[in-house]
Each structure stands twice: as C-alpha cells, then as structure tokens.
Amino acid sequence: MQTLTLIQPDDWHLHLRDGAALKAVLPHTVRQFSRAIVMPNLKPPVRSVEEARAYRHRILAAIPSGKQFEPLMTLYLTDNTSPAEIMAAQASQFIKAVKYYPAGATTHSDLGVTDLRRCDRVFEAMQAVDMPLLLHGEVTDPAVDVFEREAVFIEKHLIPLKQRYPNLRVVLEHITTSEAVQFVLATDKTAATITPQHLLFNRNILFKGGIRPHYYCLPILKQEEHRQAILQAATSGNPKFFLGTDSAPHARNRKENSCGCAGCYTALHALELYAEAFESVQALDKLEAFASFYGPDFYRLPRNGTQITLVKTTWNIPQEIPFPESSLIPLRAGEAITWKMMEN
Ligand SMILES: NC(=O)N[C@@H](CC(=O)O)C(=O)O
Ligand SMILES: [Zn+2]
Ligand SMILES: [Zn+2]
After folding, report:
1. Which of 70, 124, 130, 342 has a CA that sits 20 to 30 A from residue 168's CA?
2. Is 262 annotated as a binding residue?
C-alpha cells in the first residue's frame, strides 16, 4: 500500500468561530494540524490583545482532552487600531500577525479598513517590530468585476503599500490568480497561503449542473489558467508558498440560501485534498515542505517534531457533519477521495 509520511503540518489560515461552532470544528483541525493561525473575524472581531487572549483561552478549553494543539492568534485591523496595540501584541508572544480585511469584502468584515493609508502609523509600528501583515487581497469597489478584484487590489493597493513599507512582511492570503503568484515571486518579504479548493477547482464547478453554494468562497474560484498558476506555485518548492486551508464553516442553511455565505469547509479532510492536488501533477514529494516547513520558517517558529501518515485508499467524504443551527457540509461532500489520513 502506498503511504506518505510527513512532519505534522500546520494550518496558516483558519476560521474556528466561537461557542458551539468552535466546539464542532476544532477536533477536525486538531486531528490534522499541530498549530493554526486563527482568523479574528468573529462578531464582534478580535481587535485587542485582551480580546485575543480571551479567545485563545476559549480555543484551548475546546481542545479534545489528551490532544495537543497551539492556536496562533491574530488581531483584526481597523481604521482605529493604534500603534500601541501593535506593541502590546508583539509583547504578548501569542499574537503572531495582524489581519487586514477591506471593509465589506468578506464574512464579518464590516469593521475592516476603509483605506489602507489610514493605517500607515500602524504599518510603521509593525515594520519596526517585524509583525507580519496578513491580507484578504480584494478590492470592494462594486464597479470592479468580481473575478478581477484580487488583481486590482494588488495593482492599486498592495504594490503601493510595499513601496511605502518594503520591510513589512506580508502574507497574501488564499491566492487565486496568476497575478498574485507573479507579485509574490517578484516582491521581497512577501509570501502567500493557498487553499485546497483553489488548487483543485476552477470556477466551472460553481455551476456544474446547477448552482453549487458549497463551492462558493472568497476570493471566488477563477478560470483554469489561474488554477494552474497557483498549482504550479504550490508544487514548485518555493518557500514563499505554503498551506492555509481557509476552512470557513457556515451552517448549511446559511450556505443554501437566497444570499448564501462565502466559505468552504475543509478542516475535516484538508491534507487528503492537498495530497490529491499535488498528486495530480506528480509532485507528492513537494507536499511536506509546503504543508510543514515553509509556514513555520516564515513565522520563525520551530518545525513540528511529530509525524502524520496518509494512505492511498479510497473513502467517501461525509454528506454532512453536526453543527449548530443545521449542519455543516464539507467540501466535496459525499464524493470519493483517494487519500486517507491514518489515526494517530
Ligand atoms: N473565505 C471565505 O469565503 N470566507 C471566510 C472569510 C475570508 O477568509 O475571506 C469566512 O470567514 O467565512
Ligand atoms: Zn479572506
Ligand atoms: Zn479566511
């Protein structure tokens, strides 16, 4: 039987939510990953060191007994974030990054930043203490085509930001376009996370035989040429590209809705999905570094010591998972998948 043993991976972009939802999804992540960069887009968002400390304790309390997991916390940037909060975040040790959401771009982003330039004093402080900036890189201008919003953001906002703060370390999150790949390759102190859905699917899946809300996430899936560009980047062995699932749970009734939420749920089977993507281009030998080395290297954390094993065997992804309000539909629910993580 074909097996694949990896140093235990970490998830460098994850939504854990809070309360009963947190309790429902955390065991899945804990099974696959040792650490995760936890997104701060709660309602209300995690804007201060004290809120991050309290959220971190709620996560720690929800870890299944006997399991090891380290949540790496982030702060939600607003127009009003102060440089002093950045200094306090750096001193906290448990806050590893600051997250930028353009106001209104995605789930729970209404308190996000209205204009990047308003945060210049904060970026100066982040650059000074070497705190990474994580970006949801899309413009929100309704006049810009939804498929162009990442490329326009890079051109109009991110290139100028990096010109003002060349030493600010940035991670362009969940990249979806060849423009993003080109930007990351060309820019110092810049990395990117890549999700399983953006490696496996192009936008056709959204309309395959009907509208499929469980494939809807932001940034939206793009054309095939973009999928190929990010698959090439992920499997290239370049340490600027690493794993971030963007697993984003929403209850079934909120996805299957006349105005459905954005987000794909992959925490259950992320490594299997990534393995399929890497195998599709004969690059399984590149998976371990993408999943387990380049993220900790970027965040200047030690690589994990434990290992996990994937086995080449076919199983069916569950149709649904228990979740508050209704249920949770994992990506590719009910379909077969050809890798399986062994219980450890
Ligand atoms: N990716 C998504 O489609 N949704 C994320 C937010 C985000 O990462 O943009 C969520 O929190 O649901
Ligand atoms: Zn996002
Ligand atoms: Zn996200």
Report:
1. 70
2. yes
